[in-house]
Specification:
- By secondary structure, the protein is of the alpha/beta class.
- The chain has two domains: 249 residues, Aspartate Aminotransferase, domain 2 (3-Layer(aba) Sandwich); 135 residues, Aspartate Aminotransferase, domain 1 (Alpha-Beta Complex).
- It is 40% helix and 15% strand.
- The chain is built from 15 helices and twelve strands.
- Strands 1-7-6-5-4-2-3 form a seven-stranded mixed β-sheet, with helices on both faces. The protein has a five-stranded mixed β-sheet with strand order 8-9-12-11-10, covered by helices on one side.
- Strand 2, helix 5 and strand 3 form a beta-alpha-beta unit.
- Helix 3 packs parallel to helix 10, helix 4 packs across helix 9 and helix 11 runs parallel beside helix 15.
- The termini are far apart.
- Bound molecules: pyridoxal-5'-phosphate.
Amino acid sequence: MGKEYQFETKVIHSQEKMKDPYNSLAPPLYQTATFVFDKAESGERRFSGEEEGHIYSRLGNPTVQLAEQKIASLEGAEAALAFGSGMGAVSAVMMSMVRTGSHILCSKGIYGCTFGLLNMLKEKFGVTYSFSELSSKEEIEKEIRPETAFIYIETPINPTMQIISLQTVAEAAKAHGLRVVVDNTFCSPYLQQPLSHGCDIVLHSATKYISGHGDVIGGFAAGDKEYIQKLAMTERKDIGAIMSPFDAWLLLRGLKTLPVRMDRHCESAAEIAGRLLMHPAVGQVVYPFIGDSEETRIARKQMKKGGGLISFTLKEESKLEVQRFMNALNLIKIAVSLGDAESLIQHPATMTHSVIPEAERHEMGISENLVRLSVGLENVEDIWNDLNQALNAL
Ligand SMILES: *Cc1c(COP(=O)(O)O)cnc(C)c1O
């Protein structure tokens, strides 16, 4: 696939590399666990790496590899690896980079299960972590310890939508020989490409925008070839969080429309965020492109558009009122996950981030009256009317 094609073209045309004897337009689904060797010697050569070819689908599968090549190409990475879930990718990468006693420097706010994983690493293997605003080089350098193994960030942060400068973090990390891992789930490669800002490894929950239809659980890690190959032959192979060929196939189907879907998600979310701001029952509205703060300036620099997610608080502060509001919605579904055709709403304090102890949750800015809305692909007036009637009923 030539470098000369634009994102919207690459997302569709990049399966030419796959040698299919029938010239199928859609990618073939290789739903197989293992691959047959013509001769015992061929098996020997494949295991030793002398001969190219597949061995067993936990190590690699043609349909899954096609998805990996596409994601690598879209993220501007040398290589990518698919996983059975976003957390499969997060945990494989974290395990690959720490040893007993390591420290991980994190953005102030991370996905709930990533927080759970950090605690597991802490309890079992003595790996420590700390959170930081990561807002300036000086601040980052103060937070780096001799035992810091890498920097782990999300931007926008889930679910508070705070923005971190990818370039600032990458520059501070480079000065200390550290790598930066970015969970890019909220943006998808269409809106933000962290490697182009100097970061080293990109992670995705492909369950979200990448597959986009709410029917796949999957994940990716993308980065330089040497690192990704090692990850494939150690953490992914031996822990085994692989993507199934069928999930890869569904994902390849969804991926073709990523730019078209993202454009609509972004356009509708920007419109809804503006209207929420003016509603008397709504407190704060956080959307990356709203306002003229330093954060919005950074967001505009590193994101193509504002994304499809909005976080907002209700003026009513109690959990019960928030639940009453959510229960009054008809079109918008109450569900975790995001990036689907359906608009989804969730309550981080009692759902995605409930595993985080209350004090730390507040420290991260996740209050009881905060909700996270994933704006879907429905007609924007229908989405707004649903929100409006539920807010008016408060
Ligand atoms: C959903 C999500 C994950 C986890 O992905 P799964 O596919 O559910 O395992 C990680 N990070 C972010 C930001 C997410 O939204």
